[in-house]
Write a structure and sequence with these properties.
This protein is mainly alpha-helical. The protein is 54% helix and 2% strand. It binds a DNA duplex (16 and 16 nucleotides) through helix 19 and helix 21.
Length: 674
DNA sequence: GCCCTAGTAAACATCG
DNA sequence: TCGATGTTTACTAGGG
């Protein structure tokens, strides 16, 4: 059920999710086919075969016994198969410390250990070792069983011979051969089942691993028949009609027993796919429908005990059935054990699949070096034809000198939704008014660094203001200057969102460039380039920290410097600008060399002005425009403002540059605060 | 409700 | 003339 709904959701996901799509398909295919066919089919087949047994002639008797043996063996194999793959098995420490508690007691105790608990108790290597032990034990039991069967068969043959009905050796050989064939068939069934399990995700073993036990059987069993089963060999033990001597198993399998202490009822482990192979899909689907008043093992009017399916009219009847048919015995214990393994395996598989998903996403979204065609945007950009030209060239021209946020590599995996990104800012939404950078004071650079790949691939509107983005774009360049077109390119390169609606956001970019004094247009050799006047930018709007007196008050009172929010601290850490205050830094070249990457927007709102100063710099000529770096000392920007001194931005007031009233007009520190 | 900031749209000017 | 670029204004909306 969950798988189906999940896959359905995935299928409905936007285009471009090929990986996911195939994933869903896989899930569908496996969940349907596996449980339905192999599992239930096998179980029923066995049952009917046994029921139809009549009796009598030695040959028939032999056949019957073979059938019975097969049935039991199949069950055993299927159960084993369910548990085969679980790296961690139920054996707990008991394997090491000879536990005296009978398996059945240990297993059926209400305090039974859950797989999770076992996983917690045992380390993976331990679990693996235990699993191997268990598998070896299982195999040994199986071999014993076959041996006994063969002995039984041999005894019968002797009996028949003594009865004066000698059977031609050939006939006997044929029977043995038939038996062997059946065993092989059984093994094939097991193999098939295992494959189904693998498809379902129940088994995560590598092909060779998974087939290990299967391959072992064909080798071992014939050996049993040929070797140990040789006529005349005395029966070692009394032959048990039931074939599987779980008592013996229990004795040796104390290692399987969960610690006497512990826990959750079986129901706790019930999982859809985790149902042993003998379960039907119907049961799987019903496993979720437990109601408070019902029993977890009772659903749809039938017993949900693995392999049972007994119809029970009501809960009371079911309880009776449960107590009688599934009492504390070795068989139930074994089944319980298998179920535990199944659950455990499912959990492991889930973890693996999750990890795989993460890896897939990481792979799909994180390849910085790979030339990414812009046809890839998650959402096609209508009317961006001319635009794509730009972006392609942009990609090609991606300046290596440009410092990429180091975090993309270090960042965990591209998050589906970056922190601070409200649903409203997801693409398609209307105008996003407030950007998180403003709201949460998160440095745009760190935010971008962390979610770089996300924004790059997801058609999600970045939670930054245009001004912040423009600034970031400019600051990311070695020389801290960009032409308008380069800014466009940066936008499209960095954000999938800006690969569409170009007219709108480009207009907004131009609007912001013109509107904000912090952006300085400089006539360059190659034309007009835009630079950032950090000081202006800082002054621009200190809404949170400085703009709002109350807010400032709160910050001051509520936060010590040491208690600044993480983002701000990160920003501080990032901004290792020694320079800042030094007017000498104004040289773009030196600045860039010194600040390869850190520029950072220390979060627009938060960034205090390092500057001292007074008036905003007039527009500077290319060489001089300074992206002054701000020293983010702390929120107390007012303090900085108080500092008298030449504006960092205008180290060279004399520098050429069109005197912009825009820049000059404001400037008094006091202004900003208001 | 006011004010500030931001986003969007549009008109207009300039320039190559 | 056209498109890119740049400036400006108006409006709307979110949030303090």
């Amino acid at each position: 059920m969950m798988v189906e709904s999940a896959s359905e959701t995935i299928r409905s996901a936007p285009s471009g999710q090929n990986g996911v799509g195939s994933l869903s398909g896989q899930a569908d295919g496996s969940s349907g086919g596996a449980t339905g066919t192999t599992a239930s089919g096998t179980g029923r087949e066995v049952t009917t075969g046994a029921d139809s047994n009549g009796e009598m002639s030695p040959a028939e008797l032999l056949h019957f016994q073979q059938q019975q043996a097969l049935q039991v063996a199949r069950q055993f194999l299927l159960q084993q198969a369910s548990g085969l793959s679980s790296p961690g098995n139920n054996d707990s420490k008991q394997s090491a410390s000879a536990v005296q508690v009978p398996v059945s007691v240990a297993m059926m105790s209400p305090q039974m250990l859950t797989p999770q608990q076992m996983q917690q108790i045992l380390s993976p290597p331990q679990l693996q070792a235990l699993l191997q032990q268990q598998q070896a034990l299982m195999l040994q039991q199986l071999q014993e069983y076959y041996k006994k069967q063969q002995e039984q068969l041999h005894l019968q043959l002797l009996t028949q011979q003594q009865a004066g009905k000698p059977q031609p050796k050939e006939a006997l050989g044929n029977k043995q051969l038939a038996f062997q064939q059946q065993l092989l068939q059984m093994q094939q069934l097991q193999q098939q089942h295992l494959l189904n399990l693998q498809r379902q995700g129940l088994v995560s073993l590598q092909p060779n691993q998974a087939s290990g036990p299967l391959q072992t059987l064909p080798q071992d069993l014939p050996q049993l028949w040929k070797g140990e089963g040789a006529p005349g060999q005395p029966a070692e033990d009394s032959v048990k009609q039931e074939g599987l001597d779980l008592t013996g198993t229990a004795a040796t399998a104390t290692s399987f027993a969960a610690p006497p202490k512990v826990s959750p009822p079986l129901s706790h482990h019930t999982l859809p796919n985790g149902q042993p192979t003998v379960l039907t899909s119907r049961r799987d689907s019903s496993s979720h429908e437990e109601t408070p008043g019902s029993h977890p093992l009772y659903g749809h009017g039938e017993c949900k005990w693995p392999g049972c399916e007994t119809l029970c009219e009501d809960l009371g009847q079911f309880i009776k059935h449960l107590n009688t048919e599934h009492a504390l015995d070795d068989r139930s214990t074994a089944q319980c054990r298998v179920q535990m393994q199944v659950v455990q395996q499912l959990e492991i598989q889930l973890a693996k699949e999750s990890e795989r998903l993460q890896a897939m996403m990481a792979h799909l979204h994180m390849r910085p070096s790979e030339p990414k065609p812009f046809s890839q945007p998650l959402n096609p950009v209508p009317g961006s034809s001319s635009f794509s030209k730009v972006t392609v060239s942009a990609a090609d021209s991606f300046p290596d000198g440009l410092v990429h946020p180091p975090t993309s590599a270090a960042a965990p995996v591209t998050p589906l939704r970056p922190p601070g990104l409200g649903s409203a800012s997801l693409h398609g939404g209307g105008p996003a008014r407030r950007r998180s950078s403003d709201k949460f004071c998160s440095p745009i650079s760190s935010e971008l660094a962390q979610n770089h790949e996300f924004y790059k691939n997801a058609d999600v509107r970045p939670p930054f203001t245009y001004a912040s983005l423009i600034r970031q774009a400019i600051l990311e360049t070695p020389d801290r200057q960009l032409t308008l077109n380069e800014i466009y390119n940066w936008f499209t390169r960095m954000f999938a969102y800006f690969r569409r609606n170009t007219a709108t956001w480009k207009n907004a970019v131009r609007h912001n460039l013109s509107l904000h004094k912090c952006f300085v247009r400089v006539e360059n050799v190659k034309g007009a380039v835009w630079t950032v006047d950090e000081r202006e930018y800082q002054k621009r709007r200190p809404p949170k920290m400085t703009g709002s007196p109350t807010l400032v008050k709160n910050m001051i009172s509520g936060l010590s410097y040491g208690a600044l929010n993480a983002s701000y601290q990160a920003a501080l850490a990032e901004s290792s600008f020694p320079l800042l205050n030094s007017p000498g830094m104004l040289n773009p070249g030196s600045a860039s060399s010194l600040l390869p990457l850190s520029h950072d927007d220390v979060g627009a709102p938060v960034e205090p002005l390092p500057s001292n100063g007074s008036s905003s710099p007039p527009r500077l000529s290319p060489p001089q425009y300074s992206h002054q770096v701000q020293v983010k000392e702390e929120p107390a920007e007012a303090e900085e403002d108080r500092q008298p001194g030449p504006p960092l931005g205008a180290p060279n007031p004399s520098a050429s540059g069109p005197p912009e009233d825009r820049d000059l007009e404001e400037e008094l520190p006091g202004e900003e605060l208001s």
